[in-house]
């Protein structure tokens, strides 16, 4: 009986740990034809903060704070010391049809095994390859659905149906189908599992709300 109870306790504990998802910080870079932008996610429970840095510096330019429980987004401008409620963008219109291909290749990135997914749309002359880690990053898909960004990296990712819970791309590359030219690239550069303080998700008292 004691052995059965111990096994049941272990299973419940593992399920609880998995449900909690990722806590920590994720640093990543976003490359396009003109610039390279540095960013970091801070994640704890149902809270996510995205910090965006001034180009080629470690100075924070702006932040988005996502409350995944309340389904709300706050935008923070640090130089002006203001914040505002940020409305989710309207669903984008896609020309043609996106074809989703689950590849057979895998690679290890930042210590996580990633699977290859390819989203292709000849009507938009675009193909994006994602290397997706599964089961560890429960915040990412809900955040993307809430945010509903209109860049193609985000739009095409949202076309991938039935992803396992906790999926997140650690590397993705957007190319033109016609000539293979790279348009954008997203790359996770560092993952830290130390949970941030609750204060990381608070707006400073000296900041004013911008209406």
Summarize the structure.
The protein has helices at 2-20, 140-147, 152-157, and strands spanning 24-31, 36-44, 47-53, 60-67, 72-77, 82-85, 99-109, 112-121, 126-133, 168-176, 182-192, 208-209.
Explain how this protein is built.
It is a single chain. The protein has 211 residues and is α+β, with helices and mostly antiparallel strands. It contains 3 helices and 12 strands, in the order αβββββββββααβββ. The N and C termini lie far apart (62 Å).
Mind sketching the topology for me?
Elements: H1 2-20, E1 24-31, E2 36-44, E3 47-53, E4 60-67, E5 72-77, E6 82-85, E7 99-109, E8 112-121, E9 126-133, H2 140-147, H3 152-157, E10 168-176, E11 182-192, E12 208-209
The N- and C-terminal alpha carbons lie at a distance of 62 Å
| Average residue-wise pLDDT | 89
Spatial sequence of strands, sheet with the most strands? 7-8-9-10-11-1-2-3-4-5-6-12
Helix-strand topology string: HEEEEEEEEEHHEEE
Rg, alpha carbons: 19 Å
Shape descriptor? globular
State the helical fraction: 10-25%
Unreliable runs: 2-19
Number of helices: 3
**Estimated share of beta-strand residues:** 35-45%
Category by helix and strand content: alpha+beta
Number of DSSP-assigned strands: 12
Main β-sheet description: 12 strands, mixed
